[in-house]
Amino acid sequence: MVRLRLESPGLGFESDGMLHQHLDELSIRTKGREFRMITAEVAGIVSAAKLSTGLVTLHLRHTSASLLIQENADPDVRRDFEAFFSRLVPDGDRLFVHTAEGDDDMPAHVRTALTTVNLSIPIANGRMVLGTWQGIYLWEHRTHPHTRQLVVHVVGE
Amino acid sequence: MVRLRLESPGLGFESDGMLHQHLDELSIRTKGREFRMITAEVAGIVSAAKLSTGLVTLHLRHTSASLLIQENADPDVRRDFEAFFSRLVPDGDRLFVHTAEGDDDMPAHVRTALTTVNLSIPIANGRMVLGTWQGIYLWEHRTHPHTRQLVVHVVGE
Amino acid sequence: MVRLRLESPGLGFESDGMLHQHLDELSIRTKGREFRMITAEVAGIVSAAKLSTGLVTLHLRHTSASLLIQENADPDVRRDFEAFFSRLVPDGDRLFVHTAEGDDDMPAHVRTALTTVNLSIPIANGRMVLGTWQGIYLWEHRTHPHTRQLVVHVVGE
Fold first, then answer.
1. For residues B152 and B54, what is the distance between their CA atoms, to the nearest angstrom?
2. What is the pLDDT of residue B37?
3. Closest residue to C11, CB basis, from B24, B29, B96
4. A18: pLDDT confidence band, cut at 50, 70 and 90?
5. What residues contact C51, with CB distance under 8 A and at least 6 apart?
6. Which residues of B touch C134 (CB under 8 A)?
7. S-S: C131 plus which of B42, B61, C12, C27, CB 3.0-4.6 Å?
8. Terminal CA-to-CA distance of chain B, rounded, Å?
9. Do the beta carbons of residue C2 and residue B30 sit within 8 Å?
10. Assembly ipTM
């Protein structure tokens, strides 16, 4: 293992400046079960915060939709994710008793727990340090459309 | 997708005040495999930190119990979570060789890995921005009682 | 539940000092599918940042390798993790259509999603508050060797 201090000015960075915070929220209307790429919207909030170095934290305020950092190119990856999770946690599974809100409701809770509702990503040179292939997705797990609230907190300088 | 700046004073917030930190720990005695709602205890630490805007990070110092943000109302949801995870990672699974500490030990590790041991939640208006239905749970995966340590870090202003 | 303020000076801590940030990156060459313990390397960056109290956030810039906090002692635990995930998400599963990069590629994405690519751990007394049995692993899910980039952000005082 080699410890690198990258050439880019943002990495290997050390500072004592005055930190400030930025707090915002995105409201996202989903079409039902789907992957919604939200990288650009989050990047817009990070950019508006005008930080060079810092940390952005995303929190999705729901229990049946989740956040996922995954491959941002081939749509087959999302198709395969949906196929895998549908097989692992099938809608209408007789195991579940919490079914009053629909046979996709409890699976949506489980799929959310198996992924996550919050993410924290460092900022360098004013941008999130996502890898080349990393996109941020809101993954809607319910079959009907929903409006989802995502809080974005940024701290840095 | 619509970007909202919420009406509430804490969102759309931007600041240059002096940030401060608060670090605390909760010690939680579990009764064996169970969901322990800890939202109020964490909220108490956030409240004591007297911040308007910031970020709280929870870290559970264990490998066989985890943190979960999930539905805080219907107890059937927790029952169904337990049923699903018990089926997915059954105690006594012959696949496992790490069994010296009991046939629930390796399943407890796997259940922990499938969920998480740390969470980061923004703070607005002095409170965590949890959704209406979101509760924070400590999920004990061992069948016997344990004492679990949860570190709570708060930063903000 | 009992709320504890630990005896250690770092916990129960409150401060108004000037916060500073430190940003660094590790480049890790994996040998193919394996667990790489990276606790010491991350601890080295935290130590170099010379903070007493703060927060470290790790972000792995990939979609087919992940981060995991798990048992740092018995190698059988890692063996069992690998056995469980190999059974849950088998290489070459006919369910998957994204197979151009190999029959381990889509399983690697799914295994990454079921664990995580970012972690946030509080710092007290200059060290991460990991539990006694907690180690930080980079879990390589591809069968061939890869070079993985891990960004480390530290904020505190």
1. 13
2. 98
3. B24
4. confident
5. C20, C22, C123, C126, C154, C156, C157
6. 61-63, 117
7. B61
8. 30
9. no
10. 0.92
